[in-house]
Each structure stands twice: as structure tokens, then as C-alpha cells.
Amino acid sequence: MNEEHLLKLHFPANPDRLCLVRALVKRAAGIAGCNSDLAEKLVIAVNEACMNVIQHAYKGDYSGEIVLEILNNDNRLLFRVEDYAAPIDLECVKPRDLDDIRPGGLGTYFIQEIMDECTMGHLEDGVGNYLEMIKIIK
Amino acid sequence: MNEEHLLKLHFPANPDRLCLVRALVKRAAGIAGCNSDLAEKLVIAVNEACMNVIQHAYKGDYSGEIVLEILNNDNRLLFRVEDYAAPIDLECVKPRDLDDIRPGGLGTYFIQEIMDECTMGHLEDGVGNYLEMIKIIK
Amino acid sequence: MKINTREEGGYAIIELIGEVDLSCSPAARKQILACLKANRSLLVDLKAVTYIDSSGVASLVEGYQTAKKLNLKFGLIGVSDSAMSVLRLARLDKVFPIHANVKERLREDG
Amino acid sequence: MKINTREEGGYAIIELIGEVDLSCSPAARKQILACLKANRSLLVDLKAVTYIDSSGVASLVEGYQTAKKLNLKFGLIGVSDSAMSVLRLARLDKVFPIHANVKERLREDG
Ligand SMILES: Nc1ncnc2c1ncn2[C@@H]1O[C@H](COP(=O)(O)OP(=O)(O)O)[C@@H](O)[C@H]1O
Ligand SMILES: Nc1ncnc2c1ncn2[C@@H]1O[C@H](COP(=O)(O)OP(=O)(O)O)[C@@H](O)[C@H]1O
């Protein structure tokens, strides 16, 4: 097992900062050996995960902190997004039916389509949530 | 005073990771309202600061950790680079005379040329060093 | 993101330029809905979109549905590769009327 | 970074492509010095350099000095804007022989 810590980014839950996340994920994916098509897809998934934290966990409170960690475990690329908002209702997190054309409900679908494994949960100390997304790099 | 925490990045002292730093600084400078010329210069300075930590503080030990923090204080953009290597000899940190054409000795010169203020020091607990670089954004 | 607006072939054209993400999709949404509410048929030009996230796509879906309700024409033109790959992921590439440019759209309008 | 090598007008040409930073400047340095040690006059083509840091610049300086010592010709061609702005910052834009392309360099060689 060859675990490699690619990076850890702390940033405020401000939509302005999403461009930082995208730039970083794109480069990190490149370092991990992803081609640019895959890197673009990973950017989409992680961007949506952070958007969801901003919109649904922090509900627009820009002072909340988000932590994005990227690890490379023998070609399993792990993206962990952590927040310190109130614990969310994990049952509510699901995509809309795509046949029902309406605004919204796409983010979680994008994430599921792009990633190979997703795990969401509450942090241990009663405050905060995490989403771990794994992509197997061939 | 309108202090804005733009981001904090932790990454290993591996030259492979410098591309992450550059992508991030470029975007952060954009968020802070720098034009692309200035953003490019800030990228150069911060990249050199991180290179110096990799080469001179960690002396090539890629497992060392570097922390880059970017804050925006009323148009004073602050870049703080922190390492946890042995305390360095602060007297040694100086650029070469540019008339003496030889490889090396350019990084600190670039940083001084680009930034408006630089402060270097040791961390309090006896391990580690910091470099704070400030750029006034007009 | 920047927004340029123009008129062409009886359509209002809203051109979105750059990254359409959560930091600016509300502005795009506002412009799209304002245009439709002014009773104008609308094409959204995505040729210069370098990134669009689900909130940007949601604004387009809302435009599409509002246009339908108001009996106005709506569509996308010049969709960039990066925008198209997101529309495909959302399976909306077969839902929106998409044309290369205004001329192509007008040809189809007949 | 990628490195392409070719021959033109009696020069060995080493073309550096992409970002020349600490992660790859040792490879560029090695290639430059190997070429000079094989007694070849050398032009380093920087037209596709999107970023060069001080370690990349140091490799060029070392090439320049090694060439001088070995009585070989050395120079830069096609320097990209981004590379030029770093050379200017280092005040090396007046030190290195810099030409637009091999042809310009040959014209100056006479
Ligand atoms: N990080 C999160 N925290 C809390 N709720 C979430 C989170 N992510 C998703 N959700 C819930 O899942 C639903 C679907 O999310 P998504 O597919 O991204 O679409 P949208 O954000 O447009 O509603 C959201 O409406 C929300 O209720
Ligand atoms: N972060 C640092 N830690 C320890 N020493 C440093 C650091 N930064 C610079 N130095 C010292 O300052 C000198 C000049 O640095 P610089 O101008 O970047 O050129 P170079 O790295 O090519 O030597 C270095 O050779 C080193 O001795």
C-alpha cells in the first residue's frame, strides 16, 4: 500500500472559492496520472460536493469552513470533503429522477456518476459532516 | 479592517506539488482582484518561496509538510509559508549579486522584487520556520 | 463570468462567458428570466463557457421551462465542449434545443 | 515538461515544453549539459514554455557558462512571453543571446 497525501485545503464556504477547488483538483488529478478527460470529470464531482456543503450544510453561511483532502492510495484516488456545520439528515441526500426535468437535483447525480464509491457521514464530535469519494484510476 | 481568509493549503515538500501551489495562487490572486500580470508575478514569488523550503529547509526530504496560507487584509494580500523543518540560519537567506552571472541565487531576489514586505522567522516551539510576504494591491 | 447580450434574427441572445458556477449563476438566472418575462424569445450562447456547474445548468432548465409556460422560443447555441460534456452528464443534451449558431436555429425554425 | 530534440543549421536544438520547474529542471539541465559535453553548439527553444522557475533559469545559466568554457555556441530561441518575463526579472534577457528562431540566429552568426 502506497498512500500518498496529495494535499489538504481549508477554505471558507464561499462560492467565490470554488474556482480554487477546481484548479487544485485538476492539478492533483494530473499528478495522480489521470488524463485530462478524467481530471475534468473529477473537477465536476468535487466542485458539486463543495457546492452542496455551501448550499445545504452551511445554508449560505460563508464563514463556515470546508476542508478538502486528496489522497492517492495505489491508484485509488480519495477525495474527502469535511464541514463543521450541524449534522445533516443523510436520508435527504439523493439525486432527482433525471426524467423529471426541473432545476436542481443534479449535483449528487453527477457525483455518483463520476465516482466509484461515495460514503457520507457525521463527524465524531457531534458537529460536522464528511463525504468521501473514491475514484479508481486505471 | 476587513480580513478575509482566502485559503490554507497543506502539502508535502515534494517538487511535484509546486504546480498545485501555482494554480492556487493564480486563482486566489484573481479573487483578490489582481490583474493577470500581477497574479503571474505573485505565482512566481510564492513558487520560489515553496521551492526554497523544499530545497533548503527540508533539504530534499519530501515527507516534510508545507503550509501556505493566503489572507486578504484590506488590499494587503498576505502569503504565509510555514515549514516544520529545523530552524534555519536566517542570515544565510539572501539573493546573489545579479552582476555575478551564475546558476542559483535568484529565488530570494524574485521574492524581494515582487513583494512589498517580507518577514522570515522561526516558529515558536523550536521547530519550523515561516516566511510572510505582503503585496499591496492597488 | 461575463454576460453579453445582443439581438439577432428576432431572438434576444444572452452570451455567458467564462466559468458559470455558483458564484455567478444567480446573475445568469436573473438575466435569463428577466428576458423571458419581457416576452422575448431567447437563445443562450454558451460558446465561451469554460465551465458550468449544476447551478448554471439549473438556470438553463428554469429558462427552458419558463419559456414553455410563456409560449416563447428558447434554446442553446454554440455550446462549448466543456458545457456539452456537463449537459450530456445531466442527459439534457437531448432536452434543450441546441444549435451551432443563430443561423442554424433560424433554419430549423423555418 | 516534455523535451524534444532536433538538429537545425548545425545546432543541436533542445525544446522545452510546458512547465519547467523544480520537478523537472534537473532533467532539462542534464540534457543541456550532455549535449554540450558531446561538443555540440546548442540552442534551447523556449517557445512552448508556459512557466519557468529559478531552477529552470539556473539550468540555462549553467548551459551558457559551460558553452563558454568549452568554446561552443549557445543561445535561446522562441522565448515565450512567460519565460521572457522571468528572464527579465532575473536581468538575464541581456545576457543570453536570444533570437526568434534558428534562422534569425544563423543570420546573426553570419
Ligand atoms: N452536503 C449536503 N448537506 C446537506 N444536504 C445535502 C448535501 N448534499 C446534498 N444534500 C441534499 O440532497 C439534495 C440533492 O442534492 P443535489 O443533487 O446536489 O441537488 P441540489 O443541490 O440542486 O438540490 C439537496 O437538495 C439536499 O437536500
Ligand atoms: N526557506 C529557506 N530555508 C533555508 N535557507 C534558505 C531558504 N530560502 C533561501 N535560503 C538560503 O538563501 C540562499 C539564496 O536563496 P535563493 O535566492 O532562493 O537561491 P538558491 O535557492 O538558488 O540558492 C539559498 O542558497 C539558501 O542558503
Q: Tags for this entry?
A:
heterotetramer; A: 138 residues; alpha+beta; five-stranded antiparallel sheet; 5 strands; 32% helix; 30% strand; globular; C: 110 residues; alpha/beta; Transcription Regulator spoIIAA; five-stranded mixed sheet; 4 helices; 31% strand; binds adenosine-5'-diphosphate
> What is the overall shape of chain A?
globular
The count of β-strands of chain C is: 5
**Name of the top-level CATH class of chain C:** Alpha Beta
Element pattern of chain C in H and E: EEHEHEHEH
Describe the overall structure.
The complex is a heterotetramer, with two copies of chain A (138 residues) and two copies of chain C (110 residues). With 138 residues, chain A is α+β, with helices and mostly antiparallel strands. Chain A has helices at residues 18-31, 36-57, 107-114, and strands at 3-12, 65-73, 76-83, 117-122, 129-136. Chain A has a five-stranded antiparallel sheet, with helices on one face. In chain A, a hairpin with a 2-residue loop joins strand 2 and strand 3 (76-83). The longest helix of chain A is centred in the middle third of the chain and has 22 residues, at 36-57. Chain A is globular and about 35 Å long. By secondary structure, chain C is an alpha/beta fold. Chain C is 42% helix and 31% strand. The mean pLDDT of chain C is 98. At the A-C interface, helix 1, helix 2 and helix 3 of A face helix 2 and helix 3 of C. Bound molecules: adenosine-5'-diphosphate (2 copies). One adenosine-5'-diphosphate is lined by residues 52-53, 55-57, 88, 92-95, 104-109 of chain A.
Helix-strand blueprint:
The complex is a heterotetramer, with two copies of chain A (138 residues) and two copies of chain C (110 residues).
Chain A (H helix, E strand, L loop, with lengths): L2 E10 L5 H14 L4 H22 L7 E9 L2 E8 L23 H8 L2 E6 L6 E8 L2
Antiparallel strand pairs in A: 1-2, 2-3, 3-5, 4-5
Chain C lengths: L1 E7 L2 E10 L4 H13 L4 E11 L1 H16 L4 E4 L3 H9 L8 E2 L2 H8 L1
Parallel strand pairs in C: 2-3, 3-4, 4-5
Antiparallel strand pairs in C: 1-2
The structure holds adenosine-5'-diphosphate (2 copies).
